[in-house]
Specification:
The protein has 12 helices and no strands. The mean pLDDT is 81.
Length: 301
Amino acid sequence: MHHTTASAAAARDAGRYDSLLGWYFVLVWGSGYLASKAGMQFAAPLTFLSLRYAFGLACMAAWLLVAKARWPASRREFLHLCAAGLLMHAVNLGGSHFAQYLGMSAGVTALVLATQPLFTAVVAHRFMGQRLVAWQWLGVLLGLAGVLFVVWHKIDVRAVSVGSLVAVAISLAAITSGTLYQRVFCPSADLRSSAFIQFGTSLLVLAPLAWQFEGFAVQWRWPLLGSIAYLVILASILAVNALHGLMRRGHATKVTSLFFLTPVVAVLLEWAMFDVLPTALSVAGIAVTCAGVALVSAGRR
């Protein structure tokens, strides 16, 4: 009896811990769009990302010195990690940062990228043999309709440019394909060494582009340094590890359902920090999109 009680208590504690990790991810991931917006007031997108990955490499190098991380077992695994990293980091974040740089609000950027589980589910259904049931297809349609509603409304009031829409679409395609690519080709890679490799690969690609097209111009201000530290330590390292930790403990449904909460956090924080007030139509579109992602996530295990 005592053993049963202790096991139940341990299960409750583990559940609370996983819930805390989930909420941590939502709050940090949602607020990360605002941190990027704040940082890009002092450096253009490619330059900002290059600084972010340089700092990320320094943080990961210090971690790897004391951790017994497993490095890729072969050249093939190393190259797969590089390819996944370019998609998930350089192309994904490059696209989302440029979308905001070109005028798209943090809330709309977060909303579009929160539809990643919809596209991941559709691709997995088509190419990976994962069946979708009727309410999940309804969720896909609702999610896409909600995004189109918000974005179309924003286009009508000239708050979103064609360029920013192209940039966020590239970002969405990159994070969806990169996530699936790493799941297929690097399913057991060590997250610590993987992050180091992927930060380094992204920096090697982005830094020359930042120098060529942006002159690597930086206004060194405390908000810039604070946003980089926030995004690297709290988001890229801790939040991503929390996400993968939940997935590896069998919480796939919880993980995918977390994404539809991030635009809500982004919209509320953008309202508080930058006085960007969402309209009633935008709120309705966000609600429809969140309902769609929730339906898709409800059937994924």
